[in-house]
Amino acid sequence: MKGNGQMQATVFFSFFLLGLCEFFIDLKRTIYIALFCAFVCSGLVLPFGANAQTIGDTFTVKQVEVNGEKQVLLTGLKTTFIDSATLSYNRTATLADVLMQSNSIFFKSFGVGLSTPVFRGTNASQSKVYWDGVPITSSTHSTFDYTLVPITMVDAIEVDYGNASLKNSTGSFGVGVNLITKNKPADEVLIFRQSIGSFGTYKSGLTLNFGNQKFWGSTNLYYEKAKNDYSFINTAKSGSPVEKETRAAFTQYGILQKFGCQISEKDVLTLTTWYHVAPRDITPPIISNSIESRKDSSLRFFLNHEHKFKKSVLSNKFYFGNERLKYINLTANLFEVNNAYRYNYVSALEGDLTPKINYNLNGYILHDNAVTNHYKGTPNQTRYSISGTGTHSINDNFRYSVVAREEVINSRVMPIIYNASVLAGWLKDYHFFVKASYGTNYNYPGINDLYWVPGGNPNLQAEYAKQAEIGLHFTQKIKVGSFTADVTGFNNRITNQIIWLPGKNGFYEAYNLKKVNVVGLEFHTEAKILLGDLSIIPKLKYSYTQSTNLEGINALDDSKNKQVVYVPYHLTAANIRINYKTIDVYGEYQYTGFRYITSDNTDFLPAYGLVNISAGNRFSIYKNSISLRLKINNLFNTNYQAVAWYPMPGRYIEISTQININK
Question: Does residue 53 have a pLDDT over 60?
Answer without folding.
Answer: no
